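Throughout this chapter, every protein is written as a compact record of paired, labelled lines. An example of such a record is reproduced below:
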Amino acid sequence: MLAPLVALTLAAAPFSITLPGLNAVRLEHGEGELYSEALSQKLMARGFKVITNRDIGAMLGLERQKQLMQCGSDNCTAELTAALGADALLTGDVGLLGAEYVVNLKLIAAKDGAVVAVFNGKTLHPESVLSVLDAGAQALAAQVARSQGRSDLDVTPLVGPAVEASSTTPWRTVGLVTGGAGVAAVATGAVLLTLGNGKSGAIASAPDLTSAQAARDAGKAMQTSGVILIAVGASAAVAGVAAYFFGGSTASPAVAIVPGGVTAGVSGVW
């Protein structure tokens, strides 16, 4: 009778993680602790038991905690995790790398030091770091559930582009920018077309044939440029109006180098 009860208790025990704290890189003072706490809450929402830095201090004592945290060897890692009775140790970084906010997470098993799960995410905007951490918690839960056979973890995918949210722009903003650029291109094209047509007078008053041919070529070039700008500007203006009034919630600008030139476009949900 005792064996089934023990087995049931072990099966019901949540997968426990020690989270001493994320390594903060180029962040304001205190931001690293806030992100670490936010991650712990997101992991607990996924079904993990999380032992945070505060819990470690309470369980081991501040002096022993400092000794273990300052030691970067595998022995210290194993001792820290074992002392807390956790299944795995979560290490990682959060901070700025160039212009991007980067989140790196690695979950290490306590019993053998093997890497159980990893996650790497990034965003361009600080307000999206929490979304990246949310995606990280989901990724860790999915990997642990698969590798450790833990059906008690919530592996439900995130709704919406959590990690890529930072690279998107509201469609109305895209519409305004695109439409404004289109109107400006049409206006410039009209000016060039008018100037090109005006070259006919210069041809008639040219002192010689060479000057007349130069005036004609300049006029043609202006007319051609004007027609192209008007066509491109009109298309951009129409696209801008469509994006502003009928676009979805987000859009992603993209630039690609292709044979013969560069293309620019906008993608999103309609």
